[in-house]
Amino acid sequence: MLSARNLNKRFGSLVVAQDLSLELPPGVRYALIGPNGAGKTTLINLLTGMLAPDSGRIFLGGDEITGLKPEARVRQGLARTFQINTVFPQLTPLESVAIAVLERERHAHNWWRGLPAFAPAIDEAQAILERLRLAGVADRPTRELAYGQQRLLEIALALATRPRVLLLDEPAAGVPKDESAELFSVIAGLARELTILFIEHDMNVVFRFASRIIVMVGGRILLEGTPEEVRSDDRVREVYLGRAHARAA
Amino acid sequence: MEKGRAEVSYFRAQARWRPLELAFWAATLLPFVVTPSYLSLASQIAITALFALSLDLLLGYAGIVSLGHAAYFGFGAYSAGLLSKHYLGEPLTGLVVGAAAAGILGYVTSHVIVRFRHLALIMLTLGLGLLLAEAANSASALTGGADGLQGVKMSPLLGFKFDLYGRTAYAYSLAVLFCVFLVARRIIHSPFGLALRGIRENATRMPAIGAPVLAHLRKVYTIAAAMAGAAGALLTQTTSTVSLEVLSFGRSADVLVILILGGAGRLYGGIVGAIIYMVARDQFSGLNPQYWYFWIGLLLVAVVMFLPNGILGGLSALRKKPQ
C-alpha cells in the first residue's frame, strides 16, 4: 500500500535517514521502534512530505507521491498524527473534525454557504467522534479536554481524512499506562483494511498490537519482521541494552 | 437522524442572529435623528469600521498580522478617485472599481505575503505599505502627490446628491458597511471560514488534514483587500478628495489599534473599535489637538493589559459570568 525506496536525508553532516526502504501491505499493523534519535519521526515526516528527502522515492497504492505536497498526500489517503498534541485549542472537536471532512469532500473553499447546509459532513464528523468516544465533549473547546481525550482527537482528525494508510507518531505519548492500553484497543478496533504504522516505546504494547515490527537505529532500518523474529534478534537486544553507538559508528 | 440534526443545530445556533445584533444595526440609524450635525463623522466612522472589518478577516480569523493594510485602502481610494476624475462619477461603479482594483493588488501581493508569519510578515506588510505610499507620492502627475488628488466629482447616488450635511454620505457608507458585513458574516460561518479559524489555531496541523493552507490564505487576503478597497473608495466618494494619508503608515497602525481595542475575531470588534476611536479622536482633539494620541495610547495599554480580547471580549466575558 505504502512503499518507500532508498530514502536519504541529511542535515549538514548529520544523517537522519540512510537508505530507508519499506513496504507496507494493506491492512497490516506495523510498529516502528528504536531508541531516541533513531529517526522514527523523521521517517514519518519524509513519508508525509513534511520533510523533503535528498533522494529516494515514495509510492502510495502504486502511485508515486514523492513530489506531492503534504495536503495532496493526505487527499491520496496518507494521514498522520503527531507525537505532541497538534490540535486546534479554541475550536471544538466537532469543528476540528468537520474541517477535515469538509476538506476531503472539497467543500472547504465554499465561503458563500453556511455550515448548516453541509449536514452530511457534520454528521460524519460526529460519527467519527462517537467512534473514538469523544461525542460527550464534541462541542467543548478543545483546550478544555483532558490530555487523553486530546490524544484521541489526534486520531479522529486523521481518520476524518478517510486514510488508506495511517501513521501514528507515539499515539500514547504522555498517557498513563492503563489508559494507553485503552487507547490502543481503540486503534486496534479501526477498520481491518486500514494500514497502520505506529511508533511506540512500550514493548508490551508493541508485541500485543503489532503484526509486524520495524526496528530503526541511527537513521537506518536495522530489521523488519514478525514480533517473534524481532524478539529473538541479537542485534535488537544489543540496541536496547544501549550498545547502539558501537554499531552506528 | 435526530442525533445528526442536533449537531447541525450547533452550527445553526452559531450563525443565528442575536437580538443584540439587530438592536445594534437599528441603532446605527440613530445619528440621522439624534446627531444630524455629526453625520459626516458618522460616515467616517462607518468607513473606518468597514476598513477594520476587512482587517478582522485577516487578523481575527486567519491570523495574518498586517501593518500595511492601508495599501489596499489607499489603492481603492485612488482608483475610485481617478475613475471619477477622468471617466465616470457614478458612485456605485466607482465603489466596484475601487474594490476590484484593491482585490487584484491583494491577490498579486498575497502570493508573497501568505508565505511568511510572525515578525517577517509584519515587516513585509509594513514595507509594502511604505512602498505604495512613496510610489503615490512620487507619481504626483497621476495622484496629485502631497497636494492630494483634485477634481474628484461625484454624480448623485441613485438620484441623491452628496449634501453638505453628510446625509447621503452616511446612508451610503452605512449601507455598504452593512452589505459587506453580511458577506463577512456569511464567510465566517461557512466551511471556508471554519478552515480559516483552523489555520489561525494551528497552521501545522492543517496540511496534515488535507488543507491547502496557502491557497486559503491567498483567498482571504484577496477578499480582505477588496473590502479595504471598497472602504477607500467610499472615503474618496464621500469627501471628494484623495490625500496621500489614505496610504500612510498611520492609517495602517490606526486600523490595527481600532481592531485590537474593539476585539479581533468577533466581526463587531472593528465596528465598536471604530466608533470608540473616532468619537474619542473627535472629542479629545477638540480639547487639545496635539496630544490626543496620549489618550488613545492610554486606552490601548489599558485594554491590552486588562482586556486581552478587546472591549467586546471583556463585555462578553462579563455577560457570561453570572450564568
**What is the strand tally of chain B?**
0
Measured on Cα atoms, how large is the radius of gyration of chain A?
A: 19 Å
Structural category of chain A: alpha/beta
Shape of chain A: globular
Mean pLDDT of chain B equals: 90
Q: Which sequence of strands runs across the widest sheet of chain A?
A: 6-7-8-3-9-10
Q: Which structural class should the secondary elements of chain B be placed in? A: mainly alpha
Pair with the biggest interface: A-B, 48 and 38 residues
Largest sheet of chain B: none
Mean pLDDT across all residues of chain A, rounded? Answer: 91
Rg of chain B (C-alpha, Å): 20 Å
Indicate the topology.
The complex is a heterodimer of chains A (249) and B (323).
Chain A: E1 2-11, E2 14-24, E3 29-33, H1 40-48, E4 55-60, E5 63-64, H2 70-76, E6 78-80, H3 93-104, H4 119-131, H5 147-159, E7 165-168, H6 177-188, E8 195-199, H7 203-209, E9 212-217, E10 220-225, H8 227-231, H9 234-240, H10 244-248
Parallel strand pairs in A: 3-8, 3-9, 6-7, 7-8
Antiparallel strand pairs in A: 1-2, 1-4, 4-5, 9-10
Chain B: H1 2-15, H2 19-27, H3 39-62, H4 70-86, H5 91-113, H6 118-138, H7 140-143, H8 167-188, H9 191-201, H10 205-208, H11 213-239, H12 249-262, H13 268-287, H14 292-306, H15 310-320
Helix pairs in contact in B: 3-8, 3-11, 3-12, 3-13, 4-5, 4-6, 4-11, 5-11, 8-11, 9-11, 12-13, 12-15, 13-14, 13-15
How would you explain this protein's 3D organization?
The complex is a heterodimer of chains A (249) and B (323). By secondary structure, chain A is an alpha/beta fold. Chain A contains 10 helices and 10 strands. In chain A, the strands form 2 sheets. In chain A, strands 6-7-8-3-9-10 form a 6-stranded mixed sheet, with helices on both faces. In chain A, α3 packs across α4. Chain A is globular and about 55 Å long. By secondary structure, chain B is mainly α. Chain B has a domain of 215 residues. Chain B is globular. The mean pLDDT of chain B is 90.
